[in-house]
Amino acid sequence: MATLCTIWLIMTVILNYRVPLIKGENYTVTLLYPISNVQLVSIHYFGAFIAAIEDMNEDSVENGYDIQLNYNIADTVKEIYFNKVFNTPEWSSLKLIGNKSQEGTDAFIGPGFQTCACAATTAAAYNKPMVGYVCNTAQVDYDTLHPTFSRTVASTAYFNRPVEATLKNYKWNLTAVISGAKAETSDAKSSLINSLELKRVTVSFKDNFDADKAASNLAYRNLFFKNLKETARVIFYINDFAETELTFFQYANEYGLGNGDYVIHFITNKVHHPTTAVYSAVNVTSGWGHFANGYLGRYQGKSSEEMESAIQLLKRSFIIAPWGNNIGSENTKTFRSRMTRIMDDFLKCTQSGGFRFECFFTNPDLTWSNKKDDLYDAVKVYYETLVKTKLKNQDTRNGEAVMKNARNVIFKSRLGYNFTLNEKLDFVPTYSLLYFQLGDKYNQSIDIHEIQPIGTYDQLPSDTTTLILNGPSSMAGWENFPVRQSPKCGFKNELCPPPDKDNTTETTTAIVVSIVFIILICVGLYIGLFMYRRRLLLTNMSWKIDESQIQITNSGMDASRLSLNASKNSLSNQETRGNIQLFTKVAIYKSQLVACKVFHKNKFITNRIVLQELRDMLDLSHENINPFLGIVLNPQSSNMIIYQYCPKGSLQDVLSNEDIKLDSTFLSSFVKDIVKGMVYLHHSSLKSHGRLKSCNCIVDSRWLIKITDFGTNFLRNGLDPLNKIDDNARYTGLLWTAPELLRMSNPLPRGTQKADVYSFGIILQEIITRSEPFAMHELDAVDIIRRVKAVSDPPFRPAVQKYHAAQSFSDSNSSNEMYQLMLNCLTEDPTERPTFSETRRFMKKMSHGKETNVFEHMVVMLEKYSNHLEKVVEDRTKQLIVEKKKTDDLVHRMLPKFIADQLKNNGSVEAEWYDEVTVYFSDVVGFTTISGKSTPMQVVDFLNDLYTLFDNVISTYDAYKVETIGDAYMVVSGLPVRNGHLHAAQIADLSLHLLRAVDEEFVIRHQPQNKLRIRIGLHSGAVAAGVVGLTMPRYCLFGDTVNVASRMESNGIALRIHISQQTKDLLESHNDNYHIEPRDQKVELKNVGIVQTYWLNEKKDEQSTNNSNSSVRSNKILLQPLEEVPKKKKSFTNFLKRNSVAVA
């Protein structure tokens, strides 16, 4: 590849040789960057480059250096894609540097690592300065082939000496050298190994660490760290990529390198300083402090032993890196904000009129890197060297002469620290030995970690390096340091004699006996501890809540989801007993809302059974079980059972509220939630519920059903105030009770599991019909309970028909299966009723395995609505863009685009003085005669045809139509956007073009026999221009130049272009291609006097390109003697003469 690069270098220099550019004060700096391959998160390199250019230009203005840096950005990989023969990075850089050098580039910034050597050699061949900001390869350490190349990063060869000094200081001669998978770090590893071996240091382990392979291949990871542990304890890791190093560090700890016997040194050439060495959860900046926090963060939630091991490994890890002090430059946060502004302008994000994905990455806080500071410093090195060359009166276009002034010079980085370029123009780093200074709370997720220097590496005159520590205090807290470079007996016990074989049997017996004894002790301790903890749990009073912890809220506000039917019994938000409606109390307990269920008991006996039941209730944890929180005991006022509060009330409340629309998905989800909750309850220590009702199935904020009012059988007698409840209310609470329990004289307090299934069947009837139990029979609760209790054939059950299920469930299969499930749950024989586990399998089969709940269904509905809304917004946006374009086009027809944009953005336009413009006036000769023979509509059509022709011609020139009044037509060039001295030539060419167009193309439609003749006058001078008025703003011109131009037209003759002395001088001083002749007689102009004027006849190059017929006709038109046409007194001309103003 080097041979190919050299061959093409010679060919490029020979074939593309150009005369050197004339010296000037403008210098073009080209940034070489792989734009085609760049990720969006890396676009801030452009911002740093542009900021550096701006700062250098500002410095030049302040100090009067008279240097202006211009810039462009060149894509170094574009040629790879478009060249099918030599599609290599080296070829791309070679050709690109050659092309840019010929186009006027004075210096290059870059390039990347891969093309560094070839690019530096090519720049030297073209004698162009090149300053790199990322290239750290040792291939360009010598300046014989590239005397114009320098860089703001250190070569990988420079950290060999600090490593040697570290080994020498701690008397280590056995080590391991590791690098990542990148080519540049692998090359640096080879260079370091060769250097160490020359110093007689044994490198026992040398390998590349592949983080991706280690994460996916257990065999590779085991072999890598096994070999590492068994060969070296002093490890040097060449800095690669933060995530790779984090992975290596984590695995190193997992494989035992954090036991205090190992030490790891990270080596890097990146300059570090306090602003990049600190990590804070409030202000995250890149650096090794961030590395430490990310590493320790991986052990959050793990055991204290694992965390301690991770910390020990971090304490025995160091960093060898250049350390920059004296940070006093522009604040990094301010600089990043500036990057955002620059990249907004670079990508035109603010002007784009809509969201653009790449504009999201203009925030530099997303991916900040000190490479951007190195890029800034590279521009600064070239600029300061250029200034020094200029001040010495040396050739600033001679790259070698310019870069010679950078040798052995100290520069100041953007971050404030000083760095030196040596005799070879190489960045000379000052290395320090750094350690991790952990925060006091390093075992928590939020902390601040830093890296601090404990020593520096001094370069001695004998070309050797030595490590100078800050003092003994810098190593405080590091026990057993420095570590031994190998175990006392060697890694494989090769340095210690084998144990005595005669004692093997006795030793083995002693070990076995000791192990058995220890096991027996452990078993005994475990059993004793188990019994103690069980007794402790029973006597634990965590279920008891102090009354002071409960804050009762306003009960009227608490029942926010009340049933519309006052006869219902809801234990979630209201209780109705007889004619008295009792609201459930809502309170605040530990900053959360809770429901308080009052019970009346003067004595509360806590025996073993009661304590066990309370313990079991506290242990229940399921998404469909409402948590039991505890009991408040206060016999003087009222005792309360505390449950978690659900704001949407009970299932009974929801079903009875006709304003709540429930589709089949909602109803199916309710059924599934009840089944899942009961399955969990039946498999718990409580075994059954005993009081399953729709009012005990409450709805939380996510429309999830939670089962409540379970357990607490020892409190049943105190839950109902007997003196306030009539028989109908008492029997209403029994509508969900199974018939076998109603027939018992002493029913079981907790009921049975099969009885819970019957209660579930009654809830299914409520869900299917959305009515209360047995509502279709129109009987009171006493009669209903009497009929259910009686043994009859068929048994008395809710009269539900299939059409009820079909109305509630849209799918016919689902409705039939839900109807059949209800009938199975309400069978007379309890053994024929399905268990809740069987019901769950039945529901899963019915839904084909789908687990869609109400919340997910609501999300799907919202997504559909959102998608529809997005489509509507998109259509409206497109219409708005079309209408905006129409409006802009209309405004730009009334005002110059430049002025119209200012008016839209600022609301007003400041008047402006223009030193030099050229004004054009023309009118139609004989317009009065033509108008007298035409109707008003024919005059309008005639002028419209004429001015349409004029407008089409003007659109091809740098000119602006100011106004038309009647047959008068006014044009100006040189404003609102200045064009130097080109305005006279633009108006002259326009005038000649209009004369030809009128003669050759224009025909008066209603008078085709009459040939149209126009008269033109031109004058150049100064004017003032600005927008006048608010309601109908007009762009106006003020000044004598307007008057003189108008009089040049009025004193001219038909089919001739009458120009002033000023216009003639401008045409002849900047272009000698016009044929201009003086007018025979001088002209007297009002307020000016007698002046010499001229006729503009033609443009010489046009004459040479026209064919003979057109030339004859043109000359005949322009040069034939014509009589003076009497001038007309028109209102527009008189207005201009009086006011010296032109209005647009």
CATH architectural label of the largest domain: Orthogonal Bundle
State the shape: flat
* Major sheet description: 9 strands, mixed
> Which radius of gyration do the C-alpha atoms yield?
47 Å
Based on secondary structure, the structural category is alpha+beta
Task: Give the helix level as a range of percent.
Answer: 40-55%
Strand content: 15-25%
Q: Spans of 5+ residues with little confidence (pLDDT < 50)?
A: 1-24, 275-286, 555-583, 720-724, 1104-1144
What is the C-level CATH assignment of the largest domain?
Answer: Mainly Alpha
Under CATH, the topology of the largest domain can be stated as Transferase(Phosphotransferase), domain 1
Q: Could you please describe the fold and organization of this structure?
A:
The strands form 8 sheets. Strands 26, 27, 28, 29, 30, 31, 32, 35 and 36 form a 9-stranded mixed beta sheet that branches. This protein has an 8-stranded mixed beta sheet with strand order 7-6-8-9-10-14-15-16. Strands 2-1-3-4-5 form a 5-stranded parallel beta sheet, sandwiched between helices. The chain is α+β, with helices and mostly antiparallel strands and 1144 residues long. It folds into 4 domains: 24-154 and 330-428, Response regulator (Rossmann fold, 3-Layer(aba) Sandwich), CATH 3.40.50; 212-268 and 272-322 and 431-469, Rossmann fold; 544-553 and 583-852, Transferase(Phosphotransferase) domain 1 (Transferase(Phosphotransferase), domain 1, Orthogonal Bundle), CATH 1.10.510.10; 897-1099, Alpha-Beta Plaits, CATH 3.30.70. It starts with a helix and ends with a strand. Helix 1 packs parallel to helix 4 (89-102), helix 2 packs across helix 14 (332-347) and helix 24 packs antiparallel against helix 27 (812-825). Mean pLDDT is 77; it is low at 1-24, 275-286, 555-583, 720-724 and 1104-1144. Strand 18 and strand 19 (580-583) form a beta hairpin. The protein is built from 38 helices and 36 strands. The radius of gyration is 47 Å and the shape is flat.
